[in-house]
């Protein structure tokens, strides 16, 4: 059985169906990238996984345990194992970088403060911010703030990291510094589900690519299969457009 299984997932915003019979799985250590046009359900899928979008029907299992999203304890156990990084950094402006990263592990998890501090420093060094420990968010570039957000998510020691268009709010010259940090995590074997429009990066780091449209999965396969020889007409049309930009 796969580490993360998604079976028959359906969800809606009001009357709008945003996920429609979504099925796929993720093995431990895999990097699965979700691609597709805007409004295809990619971000909605991540929000449903983390419990921010109510699920109408379907089932999600993590390491064999079925997640009951109506039960707070079940969701809490899930969020002990999954973490998400959004497009916007959402850092606390009145706290320095180190405090932003250590806050949740110490206050929410109740882990020892000195241990959390050591871990935070290691993570910030890993994402190239070892010299910015005592800087405040407004003293950082957008790329640096997003790397702080990445370190903050990792400080919770997730088994699966969800990345929702983490470079879309950045100026083009800042994108690579965030992608380089994700490349490091990939080499470390972090299990990730990535939503991204950075197709060169998706092709480089992904174990598998899942193409979505209108809330459904239209094709899934290796990066080579999806980008070089897509079988579904909708996938062929999408790939041909993005590769000729």
Oligomer state equals single chain
- Strand line-up of the largest beta sheet: 6-7-8-3-9-10
Give the helix/strand class. alpha/beta
Average pLDDT score: 95
Share in β-strands: 15-25%
First-last Cα distance = 39 Å
* Principal-axes shape call: globular
Q: How much helical structure, as a percent, in the residues?
A: 25-40%
Most strands sheet: 6 strands, mixed
Topology (SSEs and partners):
Layout: E1 4-13, E2 16-26, E3 31-35, H1 42-50, E4 57-62, E5 65-66, H2 72-79, E6 82-85, H3 97-108, H4 113-126, H5 142-154, E7 160-164, H6 172-187, E8 191-195, H7 199-205, E9 208-213, E10 216-221, H8 223-228, H9 233-243
Parallel strand pairs: 3-8, 3-9, 6-7, 7-8
Antiparallel strand pairs: 1-2, 1-4, 4-5, 9-10
Task: Please give a structural write-up.
This protein is an alpha/beta fold and 245 residues long. It is built from nine helices and ten strands. α6 links the parallel β7 and β8 (191-195). α3 (97-108) packs parallel to α5. The model has no long low-confidence stretch (mean pLDDT 95).
